[in-house]
Amino acid sequence: MLWSLIRGELSGADLLVDLCASAFVLFVCLPMHEFAHAWMANRLGDETPRLAGRLTLNPLAHLDLFGALLIFLAGFGYAKPVPVNPRNMRCGSKKGLAYTALAGPVSNLIFSFLLLLIANAVYYLAGAGQVQWAYYASLILTAAAQINLSLAVFNLIPLPPLDGYNALQRILPYQYTRFVHQYADYIQWGLIAAVLLGLLDGLIGGISGALFMLFDWLTSLPFVLLGR
After folding, report:
1. What is the DSSP letter of 164?
2. 18 and 1 in contact (C-beta within 8 Å)?
3. Distance between CA 123 and CA 71 in Å, rounded?
């Protein structure tokens, strides 16, 4: 969003849609992502997230101010990490950490599908967007789904502190994990810089764009068939 705004590629209406979608992601999608982590950890026997007050959909419990700012500037950001103790998990620490880490991105994928289903339902059932409120509601939900998919793809990058690294840590080469542990702080700030500079847009946009087209096709198909 930041670079599109600077280059003048966003109209006033587009900017409003993006701001509404980003706010929706911040107050609904990110809390759901973190709740999914907390729910999975609790399900596996680790009560640490519940005791820390993170087994909730209340956005204030998960909000990180800088991560929230990134949502509006770059289209994807982060919330406060959910504290977990893998040693408490019944299935074993490494497997439990992997399941807990994957729960967040999976929740993004599922919720993106549901958002697109609702967006397409609103669009088609309101006369293919001819009703103005329905048209803009559909745009906001679609934009929120796009950001949500970007969050899922971004979080699956196998670098700390992202979920992809925690999920794959048990199978990654020892030399790699030793290196990233040693330079974890630098890697984290490097990721933030890459997000702000748009260096990951091609990778994340390509994968999330393909997922978006698949999900959009699947969720619009029933309404297209009904309209025939």
Report:
1. H
2. yes
3. 26
Residue 193: count other Cβ atoms within 10 Å of its Cβ.
10
pLDDT in tens, 65-87: 998 988 888 777 889 999 999 99
Per annotation, catalytic residue among 34, 46, 163, 216: 34
Q: What is the dihedral of CA 216, 34, 159, 69, to 10 degrees?
A: 80
- How do the pLDDT tens digits run along the chain, 228 residues long? 555 544 555 566 777 888 899 999 999 999 999 999 999 999 999 999 999 999 999 999 999 999 898 888 877 788 999 999 999 999 999 899 999 999 999 999 999 999 999 999 988 877 665 677 888 899 999 999 999 999 999 999 999 889 999 998 878 888 888 888 899 899 989 998 998 888 888 999 999 999 999 999 999 998 888 764
Query: What is the distance between the alpha carbons of residues 80 and 62, in angstroms, rounded to a whole number?
Result: 5
Q: Is 41 exposed, middle or buried (0-12, 13-18, 19+ CB in 10 A)?
A: buried
Closest by CA to 42, choosing from 78, 94, 80, 96, is: 96
Is 9 designated active site? no
Length of the chain (residues): 228
Amino acid at the residue 68? A
Peptide bond into 81 cis (omega under 30): no
Please state the domain count of the chain.
Answer: 1
Range of the domain at 98: 2-227
| 3-state secondary structure (DSSP) of residue 90 | coil
CA 67 to chain CA centroid, nearest Å = 12
